[in-house]
């Protein structure tokens, strides 16, 4: 493995401090528009056309390309000690792979073992990550046991350490799993703190009994994994988690939804108006569980994860349909890689195979291929499910998840027409297997800008170890809490720098209707103009005013790249969740 590149001192990075991206089509969750983006010192400073920029600025011509907000992967496990193994990707290798695929921020999990301190595990992960990450990151924390000490440490993590999300496990009995009464108390504490409750939803008791029964019948190979945890075992736990969360009025985020039944449960609660959010995975969208029945143990074991990849090939279509209809809201990777040698420890007992697959590098391309290229979703929806929704749910928006004035300069220049073939021989992850082996994907990140630095440069990967920073995630994300929070709780929302994309005078003059020719139009979403009362967590200075708003669009998906003749209708509304004020934590 090549030695990691050392971090370059800021005073030696002058040539990388300024960047102009010209002639691209800017895509936000709210729509698309043609324009140029000027970046300085890691922040988006100007958006528009005919920009006045300083000398010495590097220029990238993005004609015929999309400009996307950098992807946010809210579910990875780097250097994770699990099932007797340590996952192969560390924070350097994992974030390097993420950047190569167009992801510019990851959120990992600090998961203590039973009776271990949450604070100590958090500190351990900060020490592992801070000097290695090539892109920005945040942390969730796992709740694997319950006591007054756990409750106290949750509060400290929220108010002093920048953590706003906690994950419970309803599976992995006698290891990570907690009981329903503990889950109730954890959800109740999350609600009191204004944190995001997360859950791995599978019925751990049933899985243990099913596994015993299968092993006693001689079913020892990887095919036994899915048999031990069928769809209804995931759906039952998903419903149970939603029921428990409702009892304490707590919003809920369900990680790695892997079955049609579980997805339908989440969709049902959302239709009832309940704030539950579902996360699909690249693995569940890009492949299925049929290889787990292969006579090739290495191939079969490579696909073992939990909840399992489903053997029904229609599952991945249903999951993408749910993402398209907002039944599910986010895509992650659950990247937890193990080598073929590590996977081999379960050769005689499927319950011992380390659970985990790759995905942090290929997530963006897989979602584009299965979503946009297939015609199921539009580019703005792609941005929403790969970046913006995660940023909003974990209170990182609009510093993350948007191309707007004052946002972090995490930008992907995406070629929608270029293709690549996924392979373990060419990927950047620290494992010799790839579950997407041989898949051809349309959509390639030709340039990836991370905090203003070009880290993929015309296809060449140029990451810098330690370039990333820890991003605190404030409590009470408006997107999650606005439907439940009291006025007193809303007063405690963190006040953050504003993101102004138009002056008031400019907004009043920009009611220009766009035309899409003969192609079917994308319905435009309202454009957000953020006031000084909106939320963003990283606090990188005041947002600039007076620039063109390029976030709204009524463009057709079929022929939008390279067409500079269209302009969008723009409406203005309050920020997501309304306006808020209060102290920072």
Q: Would you write up a description of this structure?
A:
The protein has 585 residues and is of the alpha/beta class. It has 17 helices and 21 strands. Strands 1, 2, 3, 4, 5, 16, 17, 18 and 19 form a 9-stranded mixed sheet that branches. Strands 6-9-10-11-12-13-14-15 form an 8-stranded parallel sheet. A two-stranded antiparallel sheet has the order 7-8. The protein is globular and about 70 Å long.
Class inferred from helices and paired strands: alpha/beta
**Averaged pLDDT, please?**
85
CATH superfamily of one domain: Metal-dependent hydrolases
Strand content: 15-25%
Radius of gyration, in angstroms, nearest whole number? 23 Å
CATH fold-level topology of one domain? TIM Barrel
Query: Low-confidence runs (pLDDT<50, min 5 residues)?
Result: 9-15, 497-585
Termini separation comes to 42 Å
Text of the CATH class of one domain: Alpha Beta
CATH architecture title of one domain: Alpha-Beta Barrel
DSSP helix fraction: 25-40%
Shape: globular
Specify the number of helices: 17
Largest sheet, in brief, is:
9 strands, mixed
Number of strands: 21
